[in-house]
Amino acid sequence: MTTVKKQATISDVAERAGVSVPTVSRVLNQVVPVSEKRRKRVLAAIEELDYRPSAAARTLASRRSRMLSIVTSNTSRYGYAETIRGIELAARAADYTVTISVVENDDPEVVRRAVTAAFSQSPEGVIVLTFDPAGDATLRSLPTSVPVVALSGARADGVPQVLIDESTAAEELVRGLLEMGHRTVHHITVPAVHGEDGRTTGWRAALQEAGAPVPDIIEATWDPQSGRAVGRELAADPQVTAVLCGNDEIALGLMRGLVDGGRRVPQDISVAGFDDHPLSSLWVPSLTTVRQDFSELGARGVATLLAAMSDEADAGDLHTLRPEVQWRESTAVAANQ
Amino acid sequence: MTTVKKQATISDVAERAGVSVPTVSRVLNQVVPVSEKRRKRVLAAIEELDYRPSAAARTLASRRSRMLSIVTSNTSRYGYAETIRGIELAARAADYTVTISVVENDDPEVVRRAVTAAFSQSPEGVIVLTFDPAGDATLRSLPTSVPVVALSGARADGVPQVLIDESTAAEELVRGLLEMGHRTVHHITVPAVHGEDGRTTGWRAALQEAGAPVPDIIEATWDPQSGRAVGRELAADPQVTAVLCGNDEIALGLMRGLVDGGRRVPQDISVAGFDDHPLSSLWVPSLTTVRQDFSELGARGVATLLAAMSDEADAGDLHTLRPEVQWRESTAVAANQ
DNA sequence: GTGAAAGCGCTAACAC
DNA sequence: GTGTTAGCGCTTTCAC
């Protein structure tokens, strides 16, 4: 066992520096001026004692926790993880610490526990990743004692939100596919928020605008392997020549499933995804997709939250990011049928 | 603006329930018995006021924060994200909240700031992801006022650690490749911790044991695109028939680079990775790799930390997980040269 | 079982 | 500028 050295407190520092406790507090918070002489002594004492202020005591006394809570259903999937990274980075730059509260699904009891966990740290603000039903449900049951920002998902009334304009990008993608001679474009979704996500809306709009048939939506899970299963089925269907997937992982799984079923991408079937996962451009064939800047989404979420925390009026209720279509090898002109 | 309802405090609850503040505290912590009648009244008051205890006040009064800090260089890359998910899950089950403190690199000032951030919340324990130089440097400059556990990486003296036995798995992989007729196996590393990682050690050991030549190590970054760049170079080198990569992302990038350079995997060159990334089995060809259970690593880290926090003696200094080699399509018998 | 009193480590308000 | 005094919302003695 290494020896455990007890943490020094502010009064240890004050005593050692020969000043009062509030004076130490003043040099720590550097808002009220302190004479250069004392400042130096205090700084030296802090150094010598390896003093670190207790966040708990500060929070209690100042009623400001310098904490932000993230509520999310998952922390390790690409879009989520990148968003969280963006949040943490922006929060750290603004001198806030982040806690994560995981809400596994939209079961009321699970949601309640996650909300309790998120609020137990007295965060000054909360960011909810409304990418899926779990986040969506959480947003609807959040207390109003603290500013909240929603990230992505369906439009939520009364809550500031940062959105990615998925719909326009999906339209552009589908329109492009139709122009390549595809009769229609099939669509595979990941579990949707209450309502319909922008990808699906944009997909349908583009088909209708072009007078193309609107096929039944195929539902996948978040697991890339479910894309593979769908691919094996679709491989047998000669009607299918182009597929838009709800995310890249599903699209990558789909491509594998199509190969399993003896079809070639893009010669037989074109495939497009959504997200621009770091591996998508490396796939053979590289995947046509929509680049979403998740870390920017997180950063904008923090900026919006900080604004809501300081301003009386909520300056800017809705922010929208424009994603970009990346045409790559997985999509091509339709083969003659 | 929605109306902001002020958070109820414990004395609000006490007053409403007609009991003293400590009594409310007792029902909250359910350690000292409280009469059924009062218990009910208190619970009702809590419900009615939507009361949530202040973690800061609890921490201050009890000197127990119920917080664990994770220090990591990155939160969104696969192995890291999965480990963090495993930690969060296990911590939540033990009723601990997790904060993440990001240390971008091993610059002393950066490390110092991350350590300060990690300790500012008075965590009861700290978990360091020593996957890379940044985590490694952090581990070496951590105060000893609180139990610490290191996850993966090089063996750190005096600190409980959970390791994955990469070395044995790498040996098995390389041995298998040699048995398939490859003259030797090249090796691409990701940025290593101080010293050498187990993958490299195992790779070298297997080559030496078989009397095979030990090629120069090729260094990549964490970016999968760097694997692609390496692949384009190696494609031109007829000596190269088998490559072991430090992780799957690099292996996937490498395969793409080899394809760019006109080589086929596995017919011309066998490729193996490390991690079993969720997309590796979907690749064409599917990637031979070593399955590492990162979320289990995180869970074991929490278990070890909780043990170190409660026990006087550090029960079990070192825990080792056995990863499993997954033979798949990207490796094959060496072609005749 | 239960309440009164003290105090955790800090910041805020006030006097000087 | 600086020290003194309160008090943040809880838990922890300690009587009863």
> What does the oligomeric state look like here?
homodimer
End-to-end separation of chain A in angstroms reads 74 Å
Number of strands of chain A: 12
Give the CATH level 1 class of the largest domain in chain A.
Alpha Beta
Percent strand of chain A: 5-15%
Reported by name, the CATH topology of the largest domain in chain A is Rossmann fold
Query: Helix proportion of residues of chain A, in percent?
Result: 40-55%
The domain count of chain A comes to 3
Low-confidence stretches of chain A: none
Largest interface: A-B, 66 and 66 residues
Largest sheet of chain A: 6 strands, parallel
Strand order of the largest sheet of chain A: 2-1-3-4-5-11
Rounded radius of gyration of chain A (Å):
26 Å
CATH superfamily of the largest domain in chain A: Response regulator
> What's the helix-strand series of chain A?
HHHHEHEHEHEEHEHEHEHEEHEE
Task: Please state the second-level CATH architecture of the largest domain in chain A.
Answer: 3-Layer(aba) Sandwich
Instruction: Return the structural class of chain A.
Output: alpha/beta
